[in-house]
Amino acid sequence: MMVEQEKQRISVKLNGKEHSFHQIEKTKNAQPAEPSPLNEPIRPKSPEPPPLKPDFELKEEKRTERIEEQQAEKVEDTPSYFTSNIIDFNQMKEERETREQPYWDDGNRKWVPKLPPNNRKKKAGDRLKNTFSGLPISLIIAGVSAIIVGVGFGFMVLTAFTGDAERNTAASLVPPTEAVETMANGQASAVTLPDLSVEIVQGGAFSSSEKGNEIVSSIKSRGQAAVLKTNGDPMLMFIGLGLQKEEAGRLSQIYQQHGQDTYVKPFAVNGSMQSIESEAVKEFFAQGGLMFNDLARFSIAGLSGQSYALENIDTFLEQYEKWSNQGSTVIAELPTEAQGHAEQFLSSMAGAATQIEAYKGEQQEANLWGIQQHLLEALLAYDAFVQTIK
């Protein structure tokens, strides 16, 4: 006899209607075995083989059993907040919307937000303050002092390596924009001399003037330019100059073809560091600097094989004549110890003007080297002049 027994009952409420689902488990009641007929011995019955079932029926039974086991496990794993087997989806939706709404203190403490943690992360300023508070004051002072000294030393090194380069970019003898400037206190700033900045071609350094003058004479004997700067240790031999590094490099290549070692470097005469009283002196040396630049460009262009407009030479000589006529008046206003160096500067510029005038008629390379020679002498004369004004 087969008895149907209710195993689980589930009710689902959907859109206001309740739907019930249940599973039926079939069980078999024990039935007593039929008594054996009298006068017959009880013989064990041979087990009858179960009837063969098709494979698809066996697979269907196993699949049904797995579905029943999964449904049973699903019922047992139902969350604990279900108080009955009735699932109200509308109620779950209302609770979810309630949790998503902002919290208002209306007495309902069900979905109250959690309090912030006590051990909140400290701000960076507080951590830094606590770090320094644990250090001794002497150690902090030593650290700050080391930083100040390091910054100052770095600035000094930077100035030493880049200061000359910045001053030499102009590569010309240019006076200040304003000779006399009105200061905030009503006083006028001092008049200064112009700077003279070039790219020099150095041919050697000597510890004694005898050896240096010997090499200078040998270079001049083959028709090139050379001077010895004696106010220094070691003494430096200059064999050419240009306004730009590229121009000085052309002269360096010419010397290297004769086996001469060369070194191109910037050289500056800082006249702006010296104050003078006469405005006329400043203007005179400023105009001389402009002509110095014209002569340097002309000589390098000719020595490099470049053409130069010869008609411009007449214009240059007219300008030089006017400038030279002012020389005696300006020199008279200078201190006595500086007049000799100023006269040497004028004399060297006059020699360069003579060489360029000769080049216009003959166009000889020796005249171009003569211009270089006189410019080197004028450079050293102006350097000595500025040093005397100190």
Could you write a compact summary of the structure shown?
By secondary structure, the protein is of the alpha+beta class.
Describe it.
This protein has 390 residues and is of the alpha+beta class. It has a domain at 193-389. It is 51% helix and 16% strand. The protein has 11 helices and 9 strands. It has helices spanning 55-76, 89-100, 124-133, 137-168, 209-221, 245-256, 279-303, 311-325, 327-332, 336-362, 365-389, and strands at 2-14, 17-28, 86-88, 191-192, 196-206, 227-229, 235-242, 263-269, 275-276. The strands form 3 sheets. Strands 6-7-5-8 form a 4-stranded antiparallel sheet, sandwiched between helices. Strand 1 and strand 2 (17-28) form a beta hairpin. Helix 7 (279-303) packs parallel to helix 10 (336-362), helix 7 (279-303) runs antiparallel to helix 11 and helix 8 packs antiparallel against helix 10. The protein is elongated, with a radius of gyration of 54 Å.
Whole-number mean pLDDT: 74
Which shape, going by the Cα principal axes? elongated
Helical residues, percent? 40-55%
Number of H/I helices: 11
- Strand order across the biggest sheet? 6-7-5-8
List segments where confidence is low: pLDDT < 50 over at least 5 consecutive residues.
24-40, 78-84, 160-188
List keywords for this structure.
single chain, about 400 residues, alpha+beta, 4-stranded antiparallel sheet, 3-stranded mixed sheet, 11 helices, about 50% helix, transmembrane helix, transmembrane
